[in-house]
Design a protein that fits this description.
520 residues; alpha+beta; D-Maltodextrin-Binding Protein, domain 2; Dipeptide-binding Protein, domain 3; six-stranded mixed sheet; 18 helices
Length: 520
Amino acid sequence: MTVWKQFATLGLMVPLLAGAIDAKAQDQSKTLVVAVPSDPVALEPGTNKAEPIGSEIILNVFDTLVAWTAPDFTKVEGRLAETWTVSADGKEFDFKLRPGVKFHDGTDFDAAAVKFSLERTKKTNSYVQATFGLISDIAVVSPTEVKISLAQPYPAFLSILAQPQAAIVSPAAVQKFGDGFAKNPVGTGPFVFKSAQADTNVILDANPTYFRGAPKLSRIVYRVIPDASTRRLELENGGVDIVQQQGQLSAIAAEDIASLKKNKDVQVLEASSQIIRQLEFNNSKKDGPFADVRVRKAIASAIDYDGLLAGVFGGTAERVYGPLTTNSWAFDPKVKELAPKYDPELAKKLLKEAGVDPTTLSIKLYSFQGPLWGAVATFVQANLADIGINATIEQTEFPALRALQTAGQFDVALDGRQPWYNDPDAHITIGYLSSLANTAMTFRMPEDKDLDALILKAQQTADMDARKQLYFTVQEEIMKRVPGAYLFSPKLIVYARANVKGLVINSAPPLNEYWSVSKG
């Protein structure tokens, strides 16, 4: 007689097995498995530079002073801050903090922790220098009140404080772990960091004493699955609960979406993003054909925008008309009229007016690596060929492409910007302020005192209605200069099992919070 039969005969096997099955079922119903393509980078605010996976984990392990309010994400709400006031000149932000909150290590959250965290990130994280650099002072008024002073008005500052880089860390844990804090992150958030195993997973457990109430889930597992087809199979088979696009064009192949939408066990959640992908010119070059605005207009008129969206993306991206996406609160509707339209004959005419023979205009078209970026580059290459321009595609890894662009060693490149805070400043200032032309992947705008002054005025004006009108003018001025051809905005797409409930997609930053999520 087998051991199994012996236990069954004694009447022990069934209840033991049933108990194990019940426990396993309970664990699965409370565990959310999120498929990610690679290990997360920088799991703490002091080193995070907007890497999507690490940033999302931060927003679930830590809290920020304020956060964007679901489901519309059009205004901020208090998190660790209960209330706040802003001075009339827009330079002082006074926060009243939530009392009685504890870090995961049991130490108290207070104003001193806010000061410690923000000053630490300002010192250690170069990514936020342009914004945190505006902080002139952080004063601890009382254990539950902190005052942040800026060197100049910056109305978008509350948006900055909702970013992962502005999350509040445990000073005691930083002191305890030192440089190892990134491997032992401690915040106040709804989930507690449990473990990380390279090339395998990151595990977060629920924080039962979370100040907004315990999460509905007991555990989140970020499971590393590099291959897109494997991620899809695991989703369909129930091995993972969520696969997310995050604007990276790589989660699941676009052609698979139609099939997934027909699968009753899978839900496809879509939302417009504020990500912009464009063909940009090296606008700092004072010689060569692209210094002539007519040549830039010609190339912008040569691109079949609707064909690109339909042929390459199959409904997973939307048209971008100018410097801001249509869902930005500062989008100028007039930009739709100003945007170039697909007109190859006009493109040829403009080249002729500029005295440029397109057959002599041979260019290198730089783009990111990956099959979808390759498809975009090939599409644009064919459009340029239709007006006589020969373009050679150079697909380049991100660090190398960034180096080329900041060094100005290119004529045209496929590029983009993914905003991490919900304000036009995230696109406009970094992209078009000429003093920042050489600092990042920008449009490398030439010196333009009038446009620069307009951008800075829009950035610093405290009245939001006045800011909006200023950004209308900024957009129209940028459109006159044709710094690039605005191509598309990839949708934020989350593929989830049908039993995943309560997930809401945020557009800026495009990161998921799981405090309110459950599995039915």
